[in-house]
Amino acid sequence: MTSLFDVTDNDDILALQPRLTDDDPGVRRIALIELADLEEPDGLLWLIDRLAEDPIADVRAEAARLLEAWEDEPVVEALCQALTDPSPAVQAAAAQSLSLLKSEAAGRVILPWTGHADSGVRIATFRALRELRCPDAATAAAAALDDESASVRREAVGVLGWLKQLDALPALARLASADPDTEVRRAATGALGLASDAQVLPALRQALRDAAWQVREEAATTLGKVGHLDAGPALIDALGDDYWQVRLRATRSLGRLRYGPALDALIDTLGHRISNLRKEAALALGELNDPRAIAALQAAQDDGDPEVRKAVRIALSQLQ
């Protein structure tokens, strides 16, 4: 039987042979770490072999972790295969290594796995694809918006958001409004910010009335990113939300939009009991660039919170 060591003449790798084949899994694991430290391409064969064949899950998981720095096609394929390992620890290590990949070429190897029968594999592969900006992933991600798994749908939304797929906006708007899972609605709401198109405003206004405050918070943030003044009235209404997190994001977005009609509401927020809200209100008033805010800001110069006082100074410097 041919040994993996028959394919190398690297003395450093050959010197590790006794420990790489030791009966003690702890010894094998440490030897794999030393092998990876060599950063020799010949060592990949052994790392891939141990990921697939070692009888001990801890050793397989270590091999998966050690392969994170390699983007060769056989490595990426081996990590995808490891997502089906019977050990959750190995699956998690493989998923983590896949998520650290950076090359679009790696994305093409991962892509076929997005259709795997196991939802955990689909989740991991879409998560890995998200930051690779692989254009070919758009079709698979769009199809996965109807996946039975909420986690898969959430990861697919992330892929489409990173790819800035404008043709996915109607489907994302549907999820933002109607998906039964809070985190999917929140992710879809955030992804709508990939466009400055007014067509997303109805969905974002609806999300600003969502039953879950996390979705409302995301909607308030995204309305500021989209940049349409038509969002102003809904954001002013959001200043009365039951959750301060939503009010804070609405305040920030009103400043970002420089929405003049929000002046009085922002001045009222400048007196809120929560200091983070007072700080954001001060900054937003500065961005409005309306001299009518000067008196209220001057009155807030002695605020008990130093961060609020700093925000007030910044705002006044913009107005004077």
Helicity level: 55-70%
Total helical segments: 21
Order of helices and strands: HHHHHHHHHHHHHHHHHHHHH
Shape: elongated
CATH class of the domain at 1-100: Mainly Alpha
Overall pLDDT metric: 93
Q: Report the span from N to C terminus.
A: 83 Å
Poorly predicted tracts of residues? none
Per CATH, the superfamily of the domain at 1-100 is Leucine-rich Repeat Variant
Strand fraction band?
Answer: under 5%
The SS-based structural class is mainly alpha
Q: State the CATH architecture of the domain at 1-100.
A: Alpha Horseshoe
Query: Could you give the count of β-strands?
Result: 0
- Largest sheet at a glance? none
